[in-house]
Amino acid sequence: MINKIEELKVSNGWKKRFQLFNSIGGSEAKSIITLTIHNKKYSALSWWDQSSLVCLLWPLIFGGFWYFAKKMWGKGFVLTGLVMLIKSLFIITTYTLHIESMARFYVFGAFAVGIYSYLGAFDYYKFKVCNEKMWPGFGIFKRTPIITLFVILSLLVLVATIWFTTKL
């Protein structure tokens, strides 16, 4: 697997990150959560190396667009749809509890895009090194029409949620 990493057309920083994932068992892990929690090899890494595996700046800033730029279209669209649904749930909850602060949107927005940052490095590793196009257990999203329908419905739910909570 190391030879494959060296042959990839990615920066040296990504190659180092990919080798770190290999060293802690990334190719066998199904998710970043199962890879990092209770993993002695992960715990033995320096704080900087741990952070480089679970916290990326560019996905935090650009969200789904970062996934698209890395050619991980399916995961980018599914994550964007999930973020929209979670935002809708958050808006409904804050509306129901009569929380009238704009800060709620900024705080939750930061939390929502944090998902991209947390998953980004591992998803890119699985995409480039293991040729994984979609997460295990998300097989239904391997078809483009399903992804498109999911994103459109998620957007409609978000727009309807905003519409009804501001008009009532």
Automatic annotation (TrEMBL):
What broad taxonomic lineage does this protein's source fall under? Answer: Bacteria, Pseudomonadati, Pseudomonadota, Gammaproteobacteria, Vibrionales
Q: Give the UniProt keywords, A-Z.
A: Membrane, Transmembrane, Transmembrane helix
Q: Which organism is it from?
A: Photobacterium kishitanii
Indicate what this protein is called per its UniProt record: DUF2628 domain-containing protein
Transmembrane domains' residue ranges: 51-69, 76-97, 103-125, 146-165
Give the highest taxon in the source lineage: Bacteria
